[in-house]
Design goal:
By secondary structure, this protein is an all-alpha fold. The protein has eleven helices and no strands.
Length: about 270
């Protein structure tokens, strides 16, 4: 099941990237670049008529270059991955609202009863059995039935939760890479724009500064978009990390409240 989950996640990420590329590029070709060209032509015509004319800053012009398009594609790709993980986190949190063991106040679980109490958890749908809570409860009951030790049960729950926290952290590697790559792409646009501006410096000396200003616009606009997108992605990433940390802590608390405190070892086993 874990291997299938890894493969399905990889396929989801690949298709999410492909869809992001297709949709964003289509919007750029159909809307953003034609609108930016129209705005720039209108502003150039106004400046030819009135040298003192100052054009308004257009969002289409700010977003028209390839670096900004790449940043937007990566933004939607990262958001699709984060959205999938948030949905899974919500499903696991919904499971925490249920009483898996059907224990009422005052009831106790003896080591020989552990297998019977594990059956409702084993009867869960296959997808839910892969969640953190059922895995922790099943492992705890199995350990309690075999070792007859409450200390061992607490240890195995802690180990499973710690391992899950590390796994969830490692699965965010691709999102962290995207969050790092977006500002880098913006800086590449800055370097490209400044390089183009320097290449037209001789024209600026003769009084034609249009090419220089357009190239500098590429430099600053790409950095601006990249930083804005990076801030958004990092905010969503930290919110996801917070939800995952809470899930692990809530699972531990659930096991403490609804499992461990109901465990009871016969006195003859305690004295052995």
């Amino acid at each position: 099941m874990k291997q299938q989950g890894i493969i399905s996640d990889f396929i989801y990420q690949v298709f999410a990237l492909i869809i992001s590329v297709i949709v964003v590029h289509a919007v750029y070709v159909a809307v953003i670049r034609p609108s930016a060209d129209a705005v720039m032509e209108q502003q150039a015509a106004q400046q030819a008529i009135d040298p003192d004319y100052v054009g308004e800053r257009s969002l289409f012009v700010v977003m028209k270059d390839y670096e900004q398009e790449t940043c937007i594609i990566l933004m939607f790709w990262a958001m699709s991955i984060i959205g999938l993980k948030i949905m899974r986190n919500r499903n696991e949190n919904n499971l925490l609202q249920r009483r898996l063991l059907n224990l009422s106040e005052g009831m106790s679980i003896l080591p020989e009863d552990a297998r019977d109490y594990a059956r409702p958890v084993q009867a869960l749908p296959a997808a839910e059995r892969e969640f953190l809570l059922p895995r922790a409860v099943l492992a705890a009951l199995q350990r309690f039935g075999s070792t007859r030790s409450i200390t061992d049960v607490a240890a195995v729950i802690k180990d499973i939760c710690s391992t899950e926290a590390e796994r969830l952290e490692s699965e965010l590697t691709i999102v962290r890479y995207i969050a790092w790559a977006i500002p880098s792409i913006g800086f590449l646009g800055t370097v490209r724009g400044i390089g183009e501006a320097l290449g037209q410096a001789h024209r600026a000396v003769s009084g034609d500064i249009v090419g220089v200003t357009v190239s500098l616009g590429v430099a600053f606009n790409s950095t601006f978009i990249a930083l804005v997108v990076s801030i958004l992605i990092m905010f969503l990433l930290y919110q996801l990390q917070l939800m995952q940390d809470r899930l692990v802590l809530d699972t531990q608390n659930y096991c403490d409240n609804y499992l461990i405190r109901h465990l009871q070892v016969p006195e003859k086993d305690e004295h052995q």
